[in-house]
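As a warm-up, study this chain.
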Amino acid sequence: MQKDVTYRRVTPKSMLNKGTGFLAGYSHSLNPYAGCVYGCSYCYVRKLPVAVLRGEEWGTWVDIKEGAAAVLRKELRREKAKGPVTIFMSSSTDPYQPLEYKEQITRSLLEVMAEDPPDFLLLQTRSPLVRRDIDLLRKLGSRVRVSMTIETDLEEVRQAFTPLSPPIAARLETLRLLKNEGIPVQAAIAPILPSSERFAEILLPVANRICIDDFWMGDGSGGVRTQSLELERVYRELGYSEWYDPSAWKIVYERFKKVFGEDRVFISAQGFAP
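Now compare it with the structure written out below.
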């Protein structure tokens, strides 16, 4: 059940943040919103200052960055004059969470980038709404990659860990549509959740490449942030205790390598790099 969400309108002074840590391969990260209504149980952002210092439960608040496009237009022009600009959108929110249907902050930012393209944009989401912006993604051509989070092919697992996120079938269909439109697409199995042996075959027709990541590699703290979220209990209750293990990714990697080939399966930061 969706919790009550508090929405606030804010006026950002800047939109481009320097790429650091896990995103050090990017010159900048870009977040159209602060906060995220999906409120995924494993989200590492729960333990970052943006969430902790807020003093409100993650998933119950979102800041809408009004005027974001105008700010980005100025910053993008300035940063491009300094050197290559590579952007990760988004690092601490989903740019296509449900509010985007109405607010269209993400679309306004894409409009700016379609007019004045960065060297590369990775668009990270778990929402089928990204299909709405195919017209703008086409304009970016090879400068963009859409990375769709699909942590599992088992709907009951998705519902246990991320009950407010879009169904798996809708994400798969969105990847298929984007790929058919010639837009570079990646399926991000990040973090790895329990999945079936058929997972790789299911993704083969709809994804150009695969990125595999887990809690220990991808939460920015070697798994410490994730462990504090007490997710092991969920694995145990579902009967998948063996999947809560730092070596579980190797099983998934081998399955996907056999289907996609080694050159199209990437691990952790390597898969998200420009």
